[in-house]
Amino acid sequence: MPKLVQTSGDQAGREIDLVVGSNTIGRDLSNHIVVHSSGVSRHHATIRWEPPFCRILDQASTNGSFVNGTKVQIQGLQSGDTIRTGPIEWRLTIEETEHIRPHPPKVSPREDIDATVIDVVENQQVPQLREEFSKRGRPIRSDRDLATLYRTIDCLVSNTYPRPLLRQVVDDLVKAFSASGGAAFLVSSEGAEFELVAGTSTPDQGSLPVSKTIIRRALDKKETLLFRDAAAEGLSAESGSVMSLRIHSALAAPLIPYGHPLGALQLSRSPDQRPFNDKDLKLFSVISELIGMALVNCQRREELETENEAMGEIIKGRFSMLGNSIAIRKVFDTIEQTAGSTLTVLVQGESGTGKELVARAIHSRSPRKAGPFVTMNCAAVPDSLAESEIFGHERGAFTGADDRRAGCFERAHMGSLFLDEVGELPLPIQAKLLRVLEQRELTRVGGEQTIKVDVRLIAATNRDLEEQVREGLFRQDLFFRLQVVTLPLPPLRERKEDIPLLAENFLSEYHESARHIPHRLSSEAIERLVNYPWPGNVRQLKNAVIRAAVLSPNEELTSRDFSFLVDVGETSDPALPAPLADVEKNHIYQVLEFCNWKREQAAEILGIDRKTLFNKIHRYGLVRHN
Questions:
Q1: Which distant-in-sequence residues (6+ apart) come within 8 Å of 460 by Cβ?
Q2: Residue 370 near residue 58, CB atoms below 8 Å
Q3: Sorting pLDDT into bands at 50, 70 and 90, what band is 114?
Q4: What pLDDT score does 590 carry?
Q5: DSSP structural state of residue 260
Q6: How many other CB atoms are there within 10 angstroms of residue 391's CB atom?
Q7: How far apart are CA 455 and CA 416, in angstroms?
Q8: Which CATH superfamily, name and number, covers 316-490?
Q9: What is the pLDDT of residue 21?
Q10: Topology classification of domain 100-300
């Protein structure tokens, strides 16, 4: 468990235990660690503890953050490091968690259950068991144990991603322990649920012999368990799967490296096999600890790859947005002017114009760029769940609330929250949102505790909020609070000069990702793209270019490759363009045909939520023709 010890200033000597996740430092009272010093910024830095990794992120502070005398923006931390936030110095110590401290080796029965039925290996005993297996001059008790350990280590070295690792491990352990079946589970980020990610069974077993009751016991006890006789232990009464799946004896181990639960393993034997014994329990405990530590490294690798991809998107192009038109340059200028402030921004524009890209650009250029960026599409969340999703809920707050859950605002603390389609929020939720924005605090659904939050809100809508205010569908006071800075996005039809650049860029991105033979756009194809009205805006243009590239066998894309786009010149009067409603109707029909009338996929391509698509299908009377 990491601990910060303040070594200078008026509060020198105080010790602060860091929690898993973000630990914010600054003068503001909303911080986890409040420092009363004029040389420390209101929101100075964040120390993230993600077992077993610890790092510091400077929050664009005035006087900077330093590690061992070197100024840093983001820096990994180790036990013994000296940290300075402005004039205040700290010393970081990271102690070993209790479960890896030395204890005398002991295998003992659980007190509340007959020792002939179930045995346990407590987690602090595992290092001693590992030492027992590896003592010089004392060979491992059998060739089987040696082979099992070798295969496990080989598997851990050769797999770098969690799920493939666990699949291979389960296959190997079922064979090594002569089990009738085995399974691996991963725990959700909230720790309340676990997911089956790997399972295998022998041909004569049939169905996978897995009992979630057994797994839950191992996770709750945080101990490796041996069930000698599941029926005698009473499991069959708790779980029908124990009897129906012929689970006679079982081993179950939680994967809890560094005290952080990540998953669990289970092996089972059927009634016609001998039960697992104490020797199996010891070996399984040691192997499970190795797997748990390897799983941490695999998950950390995935996180780093995700972070790298996200950073690549941020630095790719200018805000990942392209264009040279006057209209888009005004957008770029507004982003530059507002990014450095903490003002609320309301992004207005049609679907597909890039509202989330603008929000990400503002966040990545702001002092909060090292903090979280949380997104929520208000139109995609049912009204009954909107309050819980935004503000969080306590355990038991409503049916199905089996555990406490942080809402969007809590997850975005010290960062930015992007609420897309904010005009879809129900009026009662609008009132609570206004209160959070004004008081910078919230209460979870079903809770009483007031929680301080420091979040920059970026909202977006494709609706006319002023009209909604007049119709009584949107609160006027919230509208005024949101439009501190208004950033209108031009539709693609109003910046046609950017279409060739965008189309070429989308084509290039497709070739890089698909490793496809490069295409080029003919002048006729570009002309057709420029003349199309694009009701779906940039998102629709991207999908159209990729579709043409996928379906065309030629290196050059011509106007014919875009024949699926409605020709605006084909009207009863050549001098008149098609009405926008007709263009939208035809385009929606074309997309539905392209997706084989899979409406969720069509809604994603069109950039609208499924409910909106259903309404448009009904409004235009669209039907599928065989």
A1: 346, 347, 348, 349, 355, 356, 358, 359, 418, 419, 420, 421, 422
A2: yes
A3: very low
A4: 82
A5: -
A6: 24
A7: 6
A8: P-loop containing nucleotide triphosphate hydrolases (3.40.50.300)
A9: 76
A10: Beta-Lactamase (3.30.450)
- Given a cut of 80, is residue 287 above it in pLDDT? yes
Output the pLDDT for position 595: 76
Asked if pLDDT for residue 238 goes beyond 60, the answer is: no
pLDDT of residue 97: 46
pLDDT at 474 (0 to 100) = 94
CATH class assigned to 2-95: mainly beta
The percent helix, strand, coil of the chain (3-state, each to 5) is 40, 20, 40
Which of 40-44, 192-196, 486-490, 516-520 comes out lowest in average pLDDT? 516-520
Which DSSP category does 283 fall into?
Answer: H
pLDDT for 319: 44
Residue whose structure tokens are 């929690």: 19
| Residue at 400: amino acid letter | G
Q: Please give the DSSP secondary-structure letter assigned to residue 79.
A: T
Q: In CATH, what is the architecture of 497-620? A: Orthogonal Bundle (1.10)
Query: The whole model's pTM is what?
Result: 0.47
- Say yes or no to pLDDT of 292 above 80: yes
Residue 394 has pLDDT above 90, yes or no: no
pLDDT at 476: 94
Mean pLDDT of 387-415: 86
Q: Locate the domains of the chain by residue range.
A: 2-95, 100-300, 316-490, 497-620
Length of the chain: 626
Residues contacting residue 167 through CB under 8 Å, at least 6 positions apart: 184, 197, 198
3-state per-residue secondary structure call for 502-553: HHHHHHHHHHHHHCCCCCEECHHHHHHHHHCCCCCHHHHHHHHHHHHHHHCC
Contact 211, 190 (CB under 8 A): no
> CA 367 to CA 362: how far, in whole Å?
10
- How is 414-452 classified by DSSP, letter by letter? TEEEEEETGGGS-HHHHHHHHHHHHHSEE--BT----EE
Cβ neighbourhood burial of 489 (10 Å; 0-12, 13-18, 19+): buried
Taking each helix axis from N to C end, the angle separating 278-315 and 355-364, rounded to the nearest 10 degrees, works out to 100
Residue type, position 130, single letter: R
The answer to whether residue 164 scores a pLDDT higher than 80 is: yes
Q: Do domains 100-300 and 316-490 have the same CATH topology?
A: no
Q: Which two tokens stand for residue 398?
A: 């409503």
Helix (H) or strand (E) holding 383: helix 383-391
- What are the start-end ranges of the H helices in 159-277? 162-176, 212-221, 230-233, 235-238, 240-244
Residues 336, 324: Cα–Cα separation, whole Å:
16
